[in-house]
Amino acid sequence: MILVTGASGTVGRPxxxxxxxxxxxxxxxxxxxxxxxxxxxxxxxxxxxGVTGLFANPRAIGADLxxxxxxxxxxxxxxxxxxxVDDDLDRQPSRWRGDxxxxxxxxxxxxxxDWVALRPWTFAANSFGLWAEQIRRGDEVRGSYAKATWSxxxxxxxxxxxxxxxxxxxxxxxxPVLTGPESLTQEQMVRTIGDAIGRELNYVxxxxxxxxxxxxxxxxxxxxxxxxxxxxxxxxxxxxxxxNEVRRILGRPALTFARWAADNAYVFGERP
Length: 272
Hints:
The protein has helices at residues 12-21, 64-71, 101-109, 126-137, 155-167, 186-197, 208-217, 222-235, 245-250, 257-263, 265-268, and strands at residues 2-4, 26-29, 41-43, 53-56, 76-80, 114-120, 140-143, 149-150, 177-178, 184-185, 202-205. The protein starts with a strand and ends with a helix. It has 2 domains: 1-120, NAD(P)-binding Rossmann-like Domain (Rossmann fold), CATH 3.40.50.720; 122-153 and 180-240 and 255-272, 3-Layer(aba) Sandwich (Rossmann fold). By secondary structure, it is α/β, with parallel strands linked by helices. It has 11 helices and 11 strands. The chain is globular. Helix 6 (186-197) crosses helix 10 (257-263) and helix 7 (208-217) packs antiparallel against helix 8 (222-235).
């Protein structure tokens, strides 16, 4: 049985579906189990009895669960980490939203269990928190650093790589850095979402202070907003890293941001 923590999240939900499709038994730790396959055992906190594989989401668990997993007979852990996990902590914005990538990855790699640490670059789903509400209201998106670059990865690609990490041994002891297939600016990403929903969207560059205030007004932590903007500033005019790991592992190209936007058009107010 595979225990999936963070099972209602953007990676956990497709991971659960893919594991079930592969014929594996799944126990899902989920705050919002709606839409998960009925065959899945849903729990509200990690239950390790009978578990042989653990998907460790660093926003959903602490490093202590990894030690407990070994004591309960878990044999393999696949950790969701991040491409910037080795950077200074003040250059890791997601820490201010609860991620403990470094602590969980270190616990996993030191556990004595079979392990794989997935290090994705920017999630395409970050677009939800930054732009979805604005796009639902109109055709103008205000944000900072229009030329800041990401190589956004479709969360399904992360989930498919995680399934591969559970099913075979080829990735054991590895930390693959997972990216989308292209470097895109913020304004290019917004235009791509517009194409997916049948609207012409315009990215309007705002001063960083105003962008930070807008993010905080949307409920994002102030420290997260400040560090995200600093990261964007450093990437202006610098192509985002693009790796070939998804193709190497899955035998197909990474899914494009255009595909992600089409898959999630309903969130942004798809034109009827």
